[in-house]
Specification:
It is a single chain. The chain has 5 helices and 14 strands. It has about 280 residues and is an alpha+beta fold. The protein has 2 domains: about 20-165, no CATH class; about 165-278, no CATH class. The strands form 2 sheets. Strands 1, 2, 3, 4, 5, 6, 7, 10, 11, 12, 13 and 14 form a 12-stranded antiparallel beta sheet that branches. The chain has a two-stranded antiparallel ribbon with strand order 8-9. Strand 2 and strand 3 form a beta hairpin. The longest helix has 17 residues, at about 1-20.
């Protein structure tokens, strides 16, 4: 009996020593650089193209039991938008852009610190429960709408979580597994991971995601219903010692329709994204 108990204790200790966790240090600064381009085709409604570069800073403020208390903020943001012959740009490092209508709508969100807490076992992030100061006023400017979503409290928490991946214990090169636990905009996301290789403490993974669902928004006083089928193909480079993703390359394809004022319009979109973490 004693031998069995000892054997189980050794197994448990071995399992815990091999389990992956998230590793940060107090005072650590992590820079997250995200660049993306998007092409949208709405049939007779026209085409839209936009591109963006976003730099965010994650700072670990405190190490507590089973979690890290941190702040995250957007430090730089530049975007360009082209739709039906109309072109707009924004650069947070240009004073003139900060002072114009679009820049003022962002208030103090660029550079503003949002408090979050990171679970060191799962990598899940919780955000501080307080009112989001992002402008909620109706605005028909599409570039402004995109930027307001980018600098929101919720999105900053999701950004921090997106650079963490805790590799399941005992996975080896060639293994694949699935996860359907995430739900976004009332649509379940089905993910298939493949561990391509592990070398010098860095794991390379493939990630295929699929989801479909319906979202509702409003523009120019009209309700717009979007039905979307979303597929993405990504590659992740993960530091197995810290569970921090160092690089993500991703392509996202969207097929769906947009219903407004009783009419249905087809919509397709393609996004390419590069995320680098230092």
């Amino acid at each position: 009996m004693k031998k069995n108990v000892l054997f189980l204790a050794i197994c448990a200790a071995t399992f815990n020593s091999n389990a992956q966790t998230v590793q940060f240090k107090k005072g650590q600064l992590v820079t997250i650089s995200n660049s993306s381009t998007q092409e949208i085709d709405m049939g007779m409604a026209g085409q839209m193209n936009n591109s963006s570069k976003l730099t965010s800073i994650l700072e670990i403020k405190e190490v507590v039991k089973n979690s890290y208390k941190a702040i995250v903020k957007v430090s730089k943001l530049s975007m360009s938008f082209d739709a039906m012959g109309e072109q707009q740009t924004f650069d947070s490092e240009k004073e003139a852009d900060i002072q114009n209508e679009i820049g003022k709508s962002l208030g103090t969100n660029i550079g503003k610190e949002f408090k979050i807490e990171i679970d060191n076992n799962t990598g899940k992030v919780t955000t501080e429960k307080k009112a989001d100061t992002t402008s909620t006023a109706k605005n028909d400017n599409p570039l402004e709408g995109i930027m307001n979503m980018t600098v929101s409290n919720e999105n900053n928490g999701a950004l921090a979580e997106s650079i963490i991946f805790v590799l399941p214990t005992y996975k080896k090169a060639g293994d694949s597994w699935q996860d359907s636990s995430e739900v976004k905009n009332d649509a379940r996301i089905y993910k298939t991971y493949t561990l391509k290789s592990v070398q010098d403490g860095m794991a390379t993974l493939g990630l295929i995601s699929k989801s479909n669902g319906k979202t509702t928004t409003e523009a120019q006083g009209m309700q717009i219903d979007l039905m979307m089928d979303i597929k993405s193909d990504a590659e992740l480079l993960v530091d197995t010692k810290t569970s921090i993703i160092k690089k993500i390359t991703r392509t996202i394809n969207i097929d769906g329709s947009m219903e407004v004022m009783g009419q249905s319009l087809p919509i397709t979109a393609k996004t390419t994204e590069l995320v680098e973490v230092n």
